[in-house]
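Reviewers of the previous submission asked for a worked example of the structure-prediction workflow described in the proposal, so we include one complete record here. The input consisted solely of the amino acid sequence. No template or homolog information was supplied to the procedure at any stage.
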Amino acid sequence: MAPKRPEGAGAFPKPVESPAPKPPDPSTLYAALDLGTNSCRMLIAQPKGSQIHVVDSFSKSVQLGSGLETTGRLSRGSMRRTIQALRICQQKLKRHKVKRMRLVATEACRRAKNSRDFIRQVRRETGLQLEIIPTEEEARLAVISCAPLVSTKTQQLLVVDIGGGSTELVWIDLTSVPNRDRPKAIMRLHSGFRGDDSPFPGAKVVDWISVPLGVATLRDQFRDVEDDAARFALMSWFFEENLAEFAPYKDAPPSEGFQIVGTSGTVTTVAASHLGLRRYDRTKVDGLRMTSDQIDKVIRGYLELGPKGRKDDPRIGQDRHALIMSGSAILQALLRCWPTTRLSVADRGLREGLLYAQMSADGVLEDGPY
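From that input alone, the workflow returned the following structure tokens.
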């Protein structure tokens, strides 16, 4: 007697692979592009509660400001490299059918004599319309991107954004804001630094400054100094000299309730080196807190490695090794002025600020903890 055929025999087996993810609804998407002195970076994201969910991204070192210190102009080679990168961004925007976006350029385009010609060339060759934003807006957007990292215990906040061509510092007083509302008060700054029209107590911007020295421009100014340690010391001293006009609480920096948030490739690289990461991991770096002593130890290690050792160090990476000492010089100068045991590392910046500002203005972010 033939055995009874079991139920379901001959049915198609269940596939092992997961089904292809459903593409996001284009009507929910926002894009932000940051064209800086050294890098071209873009995020495409959608709102998710009070946060953002990244759908696609792009980042490339284009060195747009190469030679700018000497000539005052964007070179043909740097513009060509940048336009090639922007074409990739344009293809991503088209593929995702993104309609809401802000595409901004910063210090290199603010300073270059031929930046308007470059903006027109970008529009002609890629269809993208870049917007050169002023220093205050760049600082403000960097600040609001860091809102999720602000502690509810923070009373005095210093946000530092070390870019390729400039460094923005914003000092914010949060003492009049209820503890639980402090991160939200930072987010409200998307409307400006000159006061909050809300009936609720707001974050008060005590002072802010944009120093026209970033990792690329500071390096270029001291390129002719051959000795590695001497060059580092001169860069750090020179940056501190340029902070003379920005001195809130410099003589007696607050100890209790003081937080620095550092956002830049320099700060995240120092954090990755501190953790000993041979492969960068954003989840371990973003939000990490470091002390001045820990940062000093990493920087001393960079100096001991020398130029060749830094180039071969996987924790620093090929894209960062030529700029890490100028960035470290800026970071060390800041910590001499305002030593702290609470420097929060932010793997976020202008792009996230642009996204938060667009979504907040459209009312699509939920009002919750950031």
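The chain has 13 helices and eleven strands. We consider this example representative of the routine output the project will generate in years two and three.
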